[in-house]
Write a structure and sequence with these properties.
Length: 464
């Protein structure tokens, strides 16, 4: 039940408002002057304060001032029989939520009260969400102990304290948006919006309207003015995901934002200043796209002030055990399964030897699937996706999909070989000659490949 403090020196009005608000489901406290109001504010937390401005020798502006200092999130609505522009402006400058002139209509009071309390609830919800996000994206809460990811954490700590533009590049699924949010929530803009847009997810005309907004009548269905995402993110951070997919016409306008700190709404004639930190991300090689003349060189240099490269999961496999544990806990909670405690060593061996072309995102999906399917305390091989074994339905070897970037064929082939050798050892209980027969290799060739990929451990042996 929301609580409201009514402050007025006229008893009949206090009683009338108290009855009306209590019928609306609110808990109501009343005070007849400034002193009694201040005492109640010291002792209680109110969701709304309704106070008269002139109350004999008392002054409602003083109640407003005290409330703003003591309960800064509580909206205060001023009431007065002496309606004047000066008192209204003075009250609003001091932080009043709204202003009611006596005599007033009951429905007007009810609407103002409803809107003010909803605003307070929204403010509390936003504060809670910001607290959760601040905690979640603290550097210490991002999973990874490998040297590669630790270097990125060190860079985030340095970069987050500045307003420098950042360009994050890495394969799909490596967590580029997580790094962008870590930069935002560890920096001096964390109390302002973090807004993101995927430049490849919208057609050109819609992307322009989403980014910069539009004026009424700028196109057929533009029946009202609309603020763009960049304008709504003012003072915060704007994340341009998949920036390589932005059309050249949009690239020109993004360059203006970076150079001039201003935007121009679609159909508008006046520029609008914006204060934004820009973070961009791409899974493609932007310098190569510049050479191919499909990405503007000047925009590339403006974005690439602080480059951050996110390594693929196959290059930081020492992080896999911690990621697996984190995702098991996450999906235990999501699917209300408390009994999955970890994974069998055999399952972990598959996790560590698979190439993970979909990176952390693919690992997360595999763990969620395993948690849902598992009926015991430990994730078994039978709960893992088939592609982790190097085989897809039909018996063909899985190979990475060719992306828009080139791939290192030699490294990919080595990874496939390592995965198959490792899988054969697992299936043969570490017996080398048995694994060699399974792959149609000689014992000598098999042993060479085991040494080459550093797969020898205390579980492998030459024969039964």
């Amino acid at each position: 039940m929301s609580s409201i403090l009514v402050v007025d020196d006229e008893k009949s009005l206090r009683d009338f408002l108290a009855i009306m608000l209590e019928e609306g489901g609110y808990e109501v406290f009343t005070a007849h002057n400034e002193e009694s109001a201040v005492k109640l504010i010291k002792e209680n937390i109110f969701d709304l304060i309704l106070t008269d401005i002139r109350m004999g020798k008392s002054n409602g502006i003083n109640v407003l001032d005290f409330a703003r200092k003591t309960l800064p999130d509580t909206p205060v609505v001023m009431m007065t029989a002496y309606a004047s522009a000066e008192t209204a402006v003075d009250a609003m400058k001091k932080g009043a939520y709204d202003y009611i002139s006596k005599p007033f209509k009951i429905e007007d009071v009810q609407l103002i009260v409803k809107n003010a309390i909803e605003k307070r609830e929204l403010s509390e919800e936003n504060r809670f969400l910001k607290t959760v996000l601040n905690d979640r994206f603290q550097i210490s809460n991002i999973i990874g102990k490998s040297p590669a990811i630790q270097k990125i954490f060190e860079l985030i700590e340095k970069v987050s304290k500045s307003n420098a533009t950042v360009l994050i590049h890495g394969e799909s699924g490596t967590g580029k948006e997580i790094i962008a949010k870590a930069i935002h929530f560890n920096g001096n803009r964390k109390n302002y919006p973090f807004v993101s847009v995927n430049c490849g997810a919208l057609p050109e005309n819609l992307l322009e309207s989403e980014l910069f907004g539009h004026e009424k009548g700028s196109f057929t269905s533009a029946d009202s003015l609309r603020l763009g995402l960049m304008e709504s993110a003012n003072k915060g951070t704007f994340f341009l995901d998949e920036i390589a997919e932005a059309p050249l016409s949009i690239q020109v306008k993004l360059l203006r934002v970076l150079q001039e700190n201003e935007i121009l709404r679609l159909g508008g004639t006046d520029t609008i200043p914006v204060d934004l930190r820009i973070i961009a991300a791409s899974n493609r090689n932007l310098s190569k796209l510049v050479e191919d003349k499909v990405f503007r060189k000047d925009l590339y240099y403006r974005l690439n002030v602080i480059p951050i490269h996110l390594p693929p999961l196959r290059e930081r496999k020492e992080d896999i055990p911690d990621l697996v544990e984190y995702f098991i806990n996450k999906y235990n909670s999501k699917h209300e399964k408390t009994f999955v405690k970890g994974e069998e060593p055999e399952a972990m061996r598959y996790f560590e030897n698979y190439s993970w072309p979909g990176n952390v995102r693919e690992l997360e999906n595999a763990i969620e699937r395993s948690v849902v399917l598992e009926t015991g305390e430990l994730i078994q091989k039978s709960s893992l996706p088939e592609e982790i074994f190097g085989i897809v339905p039909g018996g063909q070897i899985q190979v990475p999909n060719l992306s828009k970037e080139s791939i290192d064929l030699e490294r990919t082939l080595n990874q496939i070989e390592k995965t198959m050798i490792s899988n054969a050892l697992v299936q043969s209980d570490g017996i080398i000659n048995k694994a060699a027969k399974q792959l149609n290799l000689s014992f000598r060739s098999m042993r060479y490949r085991i040494q080459k990929h550093k797969l020898q451990d205390n579980k492998t042996k030459e024969s039964e």
